[in-house]
Design brief:
Elements lengths: L2 H13 L5 H4 L2 E4 L15 H6 L1 H7 L3 E4 L3 E2 L11 E5 L6 H13 L3 E6 L9 H7 L12 E2 L22 E4 L4 E4 L14 H16 L4 E4 L31 H14 L6 E4 L6 H6 L9 E2 L11 H14 L8 E3 L8 H4 L11 H21 L3 E5 L60 H5 L5 H13 L2 H5 L1 E4 L6 E8 L2 E8 L5 E2 L3 H4 L5 E6 L12 E2 L4 E6 L3
Parallel strand pairs: 1-2, 1-13, 2-5, 5-9, 9-10, 10-11, 12-13
Antiparallel strand pairs: 3-4, 6-8, 7-8, 14-15, 15-16, 16-20, 17-19, 18-20
Helix pairs in contact: 7-8, 12-14
The chain binds 1-O-alpha-D-glucopyranosyl-D-fructose (TEU).
The site of 1-O-alpha-D-glucopyranosyl-D-fructose (TEU) has 14 residues, from loops.
């Protein structure tokens, strides 16, 4: 046994019963188009990802979540699947996928893959057949309805992305409408049809048999629909139906999926994208430990950089999820939303402030947010590039491609300071989206060489989590702090940590008795600006500074 393994084993004994891997893991989301390009066509792919696994292992994440790589017309960049059991040639081959899983596991990491159960592409053979006529074999696999009395769509549901668009498209040939909560090219499957459930179970088995550790289930709260398809009430009529669809039958469907996963060895898991914006609703999708292992809770994605707001987020999760045994998740950025560094910059500028000042503050906030994310109780999900402190790019109109206007957070990851930043394109073409404008200064290689970079902060935080049962799975207690500061204590057995985050532009002096009720001394384990790490804590937080503290003298 190596020292490291022995230390971890001793740690676990000290911390009591073991915890499932997906509660202790830090996940890293790979958006494959934008991670790394292995064949020089300007779009990231599986060989590119394989060539960068060393970077992820060095970073210290535990598990990867791979966004869709299936065959697809790419109308929604892979969330419109035309074959669930094959790799799109743009990303490589099934053999590339198998090698990826092997190499991920050999590196001591896990991998979960995106699974898109709510809808297929309109180019999927199932839908092509369904559309071919009212009596076709797959007609009942999708949601078809006659026009409303007097014509028009069957109900008032709206599609995502275009708030004015109905969630229905009329099929001239058969005289019926089909349902699509997203684009018309993404028809909704009808999960009341047993053959759909069986086909989708086969898809899960196909990938489980290939060794994946689990799935991220896309808009999984939408697979069940109220069979009466009632109009949305007036107060939510203008919202896309996908953010309000919340019906009991979905829980039954998810229990069936859970039962399937449980037949496999190795603690396979499912994290659901439950895009409902209250933690109380999200909590129900964990069932009684018999539905989703984890569910995304997205309201923190829209939280401002304010201590009170974050305190409310933590309190809501502590109130709604934790008492029912639902293990929380935390996420600051993903491929659908503006990056948090960009969000936290909003409203921070005022007349006379220069760009450099603003840039420094937004860097400080991105760093403090990393301490917050990796200090909270729950499973954190990182989105590729946040470890470099990336901001959204401004995409010139001529190069915009996403129907949902989400290109800004999907720029290719800048690997180095060379002119193409690790994205050389054959024949002098361009990557599918522009690289960030500051890629020459802000890229993986430069930050690897700079111990003071945000990349190194993420590494130190991930190492601190690995070294502390309290951070990985401990209890959490909010502390009384001055306005503008969030503080919480994490405890597992004798292991203790305190996390403090200053959300303001001012210094704050913290009374040490507020941390534990005693005058015990604390040491700085990790600081967002690296100040004082490994030394006694002096009781002062700098503007937008965050720290992880441990009891001094241990
Ligand atoms: O997202 C679901 C979803 O609700 C988002 O589209 C959200 O409404 C929007 O992005 C808010 O900005 C999932 C995937 O993550 C997304 O990429 C897909 O486009 C969508 O499902 C359809 O599969």
């Amino acid at each position: 046994m190596t020292d490291d393994v022995a230390a971890r084993a001793a740690d676990q004994v000290a911390a009591g019963p073991s915890h499932p891997w997906w509660q202790e893991a830090v996940f890293y989301q790979i958006y494959p188009r934008s991670f790394a390009d292995g064949d020089g066509d300007g779009v990231g792919d599986l060989p590119g990802l394989r060539s960068r696994l060393g970077y992820l292992a060095d970073l210290g994440v535990d598990a990867l979540w791979l966004s869709p790589f299936y065959r697809s017309p790419m109308a929604d960049f892979g969330y419109d699947v035309s074959d669930y059991c094959d790799v799109d040639p743009l990303f490589g081959t099934l053999e590339d996928f198998d090698r990826l899983v092997e190499e991920v596991h050999a590196a001591g990491l896990r991998i979960i893959i995106d699974w898109v159960p709510n809808h297929t592409s309109s180019a999927h053979p199932w839908f092509v057949d369904a559309r071919s006529g009212r009596t076709s074999a797959h007609r009942t696999w999708y949601v078809w309805r006659d026009p409303a009395p007097g014509g028009g769509p069957p109900n008032n549901w709206r599609a995502a992305f275009d708030p004015a668009a109905p969630a229905w498209t009329f099929d001239e040939a058969s005289g019926q409408w089909y349902l699509h909560l997203f684009e018309p090219s993404q028809p909704d499957l009808d999960w009341d049809e047993p053959a759909v459930r069986e086909a989708m179970a086969d898809v899960l088995r196909f990938w489980l048999d290939r060794g994946v550790d689990g799935f991220r289930a896309d808009v999984v709260h939408c697979i069940g629909k109220d069979p009466a398809l009632p109009d949305n009430p007036p107060e939510v009529e203008s919202l896309p139906h996908c953010v309000v669809n919340d019906v009991p039958v979905t829980h039954q469907r998810i229990r069936e999926l859970r039962a399937l996963l449980d037949t496999y060895p190795g603690d396979r898991m499912m994290v659901g994208e439950v895009y409902l914006l209250s933690a109380a609703q999200v909590a129900t999708y964990y069932g009684d430990g018999n539905e989703l292992h984890l569910a995304f809770n997205f309201s923190p994605l829209y939280a401002l950089w304010q201590a009170d707001t974050w305190r409310q987020q933590v309190e809501e999760v502590d109130r709604e999820l934790v008492p029912r045994g639902a293990w929380p998740t935390w996420v600051l950025s993903n491929h659908d939303n503006r990056r948090h560094r960009t969000r936290y910059d909003v409203g921070a500028s005022w007349a006379g402030e220069d760009d450099a000042t603003r840039e420094r503050r937004s860097e400080r906030r991105a760093r403090a947010a990393a301490v917050l994310l990796l200090g909270l109780r729950g499973t954190p999900f990182l989105y590729q590039g946040e470890e470099l402190g990336l901001t959204d790019i401004d995409v010139p109109e001529a190069r915009r491609v996403d129907p949902g206007g989400r290109d800004g957070c999907r720029a290719p990851l800048p690997w180095d300071a060379t002119p193409d930043h690790g994205w050389p394109v054959t024949g002098g073409g361009k990557p599918w989206l522009p690289l960030p404008a500051d890629a020459t200064e802000r890229n993986a290689a430069s930050q690897q060489d700079d111990a003071g970079s945000i990349l190194h902060l993420y590494r130190r935080l991930l190492a601190a989590r690995h070294g502390s049962p309290a951070l990985r799975h401990g209890d959490q207690r909010l502390l009384d702090m001055p306005g503008g500061v969030l503080g919480f204590a994490r405890t597992a057995g004798t292991d203790r940590r305190v996390v403090l985050v200053n959300f303001t532009d001012d210094d704050h002096d913290i009374d040490p008795t507020a941390l534990s009720g005693t005058t015990m001394a604390w040491r700085v384990d990790v600081a967002s600006d690296a100040e004082g790490e490994g030394r006694p804590w002096r009781g002062r937080l700098a503007p937008d500074q965050a720290v992880v503290l441990s009891p001094a003298g241990i």
